[in-house]
Design a protein that fits this description.
Strand order of the largest sheet of chain A: 9-16-11-15-12-13-14
Number of strands of chain A: 16
Oligomer: homodimer
Strand content of chain A: 15-25%
Helix content of chain A: 25-40%
Structural class of chain A: alpha+beta
Largest interface: A-B, 66 and 65 residues
Chain lengths: 401, 401
């Protein structure tokens, strides 16, 4: 189950960034599961990784290498997360990179490995190594759509976004992402790769990545479970010749944020078992921190999420979630709650204007906005989430069987 | 679904504490839903309430009255929580107390009201008032079993515990509780009433209540949702003549803790849709706070809970939960995880001695212990929880329909 459209938009190629995808038999015989990406020399690269202390072996390797040099290749396998695999996991990640370095004729430290899939099982390294040459051979600037498929695990659809902006010399930004469970990214989602042909130095690129991630991948939750493998990589090849500096940064960031938000929302639309796409908006809070606390408490409440799955305007559960979110000196008499613009709760009780029929009607659409007005400040925040369904339980009870 | 036995143990009467139960037609025509309890004059009473900012009307009334005098009567209705009901909710709670005060010939401030059930709908006050005289007439020291039934909502079974201790003049402690969803008590569970015939002053009684609650009702979670109505009341009638002072306090507390823990665990055994009773033990932590953080992160992880429902030893999800629990400077190489005494993870990876068959076998029993050794200190904590099943989703999606 999923919400919204399953169609992938047109993904514009980014000059200087190539992708090659193959089926190495890691996930299942006929599904693409191995993706190599090539970054032109002279590009800038920025990346963010999970804050989970049990980070996967490839995340450890990536962090070490990024501190040393600018990457030239990214290699991603699905079907196995290479997480909780100890020393052997590090050896396997290194061996993968070593094989690709030989193929490409580059230094091993310029290769970043990524893995996603089941945690706690060793990487089927022989299959992976056997598949590398074919993935390498497929490298092409038009490889985005295949790669979007190749990075998926329990996802039911590929996720991508692409934009072009600027009048005389247009700049392109294109990205793909994967993820539909174990989603509460803490710096990045499961995996996302975004490239642009803008010219931008690594300091500015890192700033853009951090700001865009904060408002996109760091504002979604499916099940409050932060993955061990979350990674997002942003590449600027510079091929367009358009220079992004302090002056043009805001416009670049705006377009980047759009691509990031598209990808983050696509993950929620494909959340495991989901039938609703839910925007939790908290406004008139004292500060962003308290707005986020309330938004996440609602977005992660199993009781709110099951009510959403039943299209039940059970606003009492929303009030209860607000009440336990731990914000200081909350006067419940000031709180208002709206469901798709219908005022349902006011002054700590059902709004006088509210009727059960209006609430039922407001809950019918696939897209639901829960808006909470705290009426005590100017800060507002938004978090996107999905509902909790039988299908979520089925998928996650049967995942390894 | 539920785990363990559904049989209620023998509930010893407590001299000076009477209970009367009736069907007022609030919940459904033939189920008991209204309970009155009478506390003998001269008793000590202590109570703790939810920390949810959206606390229910009866909780507000209880807190005000407890500050003024020692209660003589408790009145509890189920089927309606009288929460999120604003001014009218306070009036309804007051009117309930006023009617009981007239019946009993006592001052209104000596009456404490309690409600549990659906949030956000007005109390059917006429039905409640009509039922009061019969409940009052039923008052009896042997009324525990009926009252244990009368306070239930989505619970599938009554919950009670009773103990007697001391050689020449025995002291009795008996209690009942209800709750099976919206359970992460923050000071107390949904509703619990415990009485003893010990002689104990209110200061010591409050200390005993706080300590026992901390290790029982404040160590359970079904769905991380703290209710608006959580209340626990502890009454000491003094009828046994046995005086509890500083010297005999520890022995009294030990017995009280046993009754409280029995009740808290009974709530988890009856957790909505549950098929597993799960003890999450975190030991060798630096302090209790970090032990609790890790324990609750595991106990509330939807991915761990769905794996439990499938009896799947998916220990990768447990590692991922430990890793995101936010404890400082965690060295994952020190962490060990055991499932029902089978070592499954060691040094950040699968234990060399572990086999999938051993893991599968360890997950079969109804009672599961997840033990995490952080190996960095002396503190340990335990949290009890249930699994996340299709049935949980069904119950909570259909709750109001």
């Amino acid at each position: 189950m999923a919400t919204g459209t399953s169609e992938l938009p047109e993904l514009h190629p980014v000059l200087g960034f190539k992708l090659g995808t193959t089926s190495a038999g890691i996930k299942s015989a006929d599904r693409p599961d191995l993706v190599v990406m090539e970054i032109a020399e002279g590009s800038s690269v920025a990346a963010l990784f999970t804050k989970n202390a049990f980070c996967a072996a490839p995340v450890t390797v990536c962090k070490e290498r990024l501190a040393r040099c600018t990457p030239r290749y990214l290699v991603t396998n699905t079907g196995n997360a290479n997480a909780g695999t100890g020393e052997q996991g590090l050896l396997d990640a290194t061996q993968t990179c070593s094989a690709l370095a030989t193929l490409a004729g580059v230094e091993i430290n310029t290769i970043l490995p990524f893995s996603t899939g089941v945690i706690g099982e060793l990487l089927p390294i022989d299959k992976l190594l056997a598949g590398l040459p074919d993935a390498f051979e497929q490298l092409s600037e038009s490889g985005w759509t295949d790669a979007a498929q190749g990075i998926l695990t329990t996802d039911t659809r590929a996720k991508g976004s692409s934009t072009q902006f600027g009048s005389d010399k247009p700049v392109t930004i294109t990205g793909i992402a994967k993820g539909s469970g174990m989603i509460k990214p803490n710096m990045a989602t499961m995996l996302a790769y975004v490239a642009t042909d803008a010219v931008i130095n690594e300091e500015l690129l890192h700033r853009a990545l951090t700001l865009a991630t904060e408002k996109s991948f760091n504002r979604i939750t499916v099940d409050s479970d932060t993955s061990t493998n979350d990674s997002v990589v942003l590449v600027a090849t510079g091929a367009s010749g358009v220079i992004i500096d302090e002056e043009s940064f805001d416009s670049f960031l705006e377009n980047l944020c759009q691509v990031f938000t598209d990808l983050a929302q696509a993950i929620i639309r494909d959340a495991e078992g989901s039938t609703k796409f839910v925007s939790v908006v908290v406004d008139t809070a004292i500060n962003q921190s308290e707005a986020l606390k309330v938004a996440y408490t609602i977005a992660e409440s199993p009781l709110v999420k099951t009510a959403l799955s039943a299209s039940d305007p059970n606003w009492g559960r929303i009030l209860a979630a607000i009440g336990r979110s731990g914000i200081e000196d909350l006067d419940v008499n000031d709180v208002q709650v709206l469901l798709n613009s219908v005022l349902i709760a006011d002054h700590g009780a059902r709004a006088p204007s509210y009727s059960e029929e209006a609430g039922q009607a407001a809950m019918q659409p696939e897209d639901i906005e829960i808006r909470v007005c705290l009426n005590r400040g100017d800060a507002s925040e938004i978090v996107w989430t999905s509902d909790l369904t039988h299908e979520y339980v089925r998928i996650n009870a049967e995942y390894r069987t």
